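Support reply, case 0932

Customer input (verbatim):
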Amino acid sequence: MRLALNGQIGYNPLMKSIFGLALLLLSSSAAYAGDVAGRTPAGLYEEGVEYLYSGQYPEADKAFEAIRTHHPYCRYAALAELRQADAHRLRTQPLQAIEAYRSFLKYHPGHAQADYARLQVAECYHSMLPSSWGILPPPAEKDQDAARQAIVAYDAFLSHARPAVAGSLPQARRHRRTSIRQLADHELYVARFYFRRQHYAAAAGRAELILQNFSEVGLDAEALWLAGKARAELGEASTARIHLDLLVQKHPGSPRARQAREELGHLAKATQTPAA
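Our regenerated output:
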């Protein structure tokens, strides 16, 4: 199955397996008593799914809502609720989709598709990450709440994920790393902002936050340099040396390593005892 998500066409193995499960349920279910306008819940669900993946969202919603209203206790009611959340996602309405997926998880925490719902919450937040576009400010300058929420949501998915969703784990981990890197880029932007304005204590604090919370995302050399140089400007030579020595040891080939060696030389001269 190929789905239009965020304006692009992408292959989603998990949703394909879910759709296959839905078809299996449809083929194995007997006619359900009390149908709506001559349609069984199975027939309404099949109709809704066809409308959904052909982009006829109002028609799909009517079919799913009919199931939930007239057959709230049948096996298709929860699936109809989940497909309504999918409709928001496919229509690029991430906030509405998140609310719908979370409602599904609240009322159906043990459902076979709970893992899928958790993943979609994370993917919705990931789709809201700031991006570069035209003359707008770069992503690092923008609010990063979506990145924070995405990380939390991916952690929730990965901690609950069962073997049935193994095919979705690599993408979830990759998107989680993307979210972490974007949040780290923002912290680096703030650290540089403070450093340029000679707010050295704030700059050092932000850089050290990167080293503490976002190590190994590719920003360590720059963070060590900012932290070391800012601490040196504050007159905190011992702390500055710790950062700068670590930069030279762990990132000897970095352009910042040369600057760190020079700064260490300046610190050594400044602390030498004058000859008698």
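We compared this against your earlier run and they match. Two observations from our side: The longest helix spans residues 169-196. DSSP finds twelve helices and two strands in the chain. Please reopen the case if you see a mismatch on your end.
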